[in-house]
Amino acid sequence: MKILHTVEQYYPSIGGMQEVVKQLSERLVKLGHEVTVATSCRVDRKYYNLNGVQVKSFKISGNAVRGYEGKVNEIKRYQNFLINSDFDIITNFAAQQWATDLALKILKKIKAKKVFVPTGFSGLYYPCYKEYFVKMIDWMKQYDMNVFLSSNYRDINFARDHNISKLVIIPNGAGADEFLSKIDFDIRKLFNIKLNDFIVLLVGSHTGKKGHKEAIKIFQVANLKNSTLIIVANIYSINCYLSCKLKSFINNLFNKNKILIKTLDRRKTVSAYQQADLFLFPSNIECSPLVLFEAMASKTPFLTTEVGNTKEIIEWSNSGMLLPTKKNKKSYSCAQIDESADLLRKLYNSKVLREKMIQNGFNAWNNKFTWEKITKNYENLYKSLLWS
Length: 388
Fold this sequence. Notes:
By secondary structure, the protein is an alpha/beta fold. It has helices spanning 16-30, 72-84, 98-104, 130-142, 154-161, 176-179, 187-190, 212-222, 238-254, 266-275, 290-297, 310-317, 337-348, 351-368, 371-387; strands at 2-6, 34-40, 49-50, 53-58, 61-63, 67-69, 89-93, 113-117, 145-148, 167-169, 198-203, 227-232, 258-262, 278-281, 302-304, 320-322, 325-327, 333-335. The relative contact order is 0.11.
């Protein structure tokens, strides 16, 4: 099959959506398909082919509501690319960004079978997106299939409420080839962490919405004996990054328990997962957090806010617990600090419980949530659309 995946950002940009599309695209290539990714330009992307995936870049940003940044000719070039190319399948990953929004306007002109992966509809309750989501009802009906990451979240519930019949659930995952590999880097040695320290890990970019400030507060209030918090994050918001660095600097001046703010490449990040004792994820907004599947694959029990479909992931895996969570006016999830610190202490003090969660999560991931299995689900979906 000739497959096109469209996504706002792609490698070397790092983030959950980028990783999902990279994993699926490269694995579909290994299964014998021709895969192209259409995405934003980056000055540090010096290639047109990455691990067999053709990368087609466009100088466009923004979305239908905030407005587009890019020359009119470039926008037309992208839309003509979608209309005139001979792909069998075109999959748009994530709403509310240019690569999908520009496709929505021309869906009827696209000859390929069309698949939409909404990934959460984060703007659904924002007044400025009201008209966008009124139109979304008709757009979703024009797709040959709508793929959702969970069975109970705002995007799939929106589809059900508006009688969108073409829908299927394919969850996120983590790769066996990554997480079953030997540990590449000794994280304790790399960051001068004591051998007996309990490592608490958070992986999530500096967006201001991944719960970094909450994680720091929870860790400090819990005051675990001999422990280190590592926040692995790429810089999207400089304010979030500087805030984290300042808080860690002050903490490390006065406390034995250290807080480390790090930007790591993928191999070092996987090694951090593999050597962490617990994954702490008090995120404010998510759809279906990829990092929780990666925690399961790395045999790391997790604590998470009730955000996106995290409650469902815990039901699937029995490898995590929900932090006490309240929703604010924007429907953001906010961890309750003192109660969350109590739960962190509970897991810290119960190795037996952690070991049980580790085994449950690893078995669930190995049986259902490897990228190898999930890629086959996408391949089977694509084939079924062509055969129909």
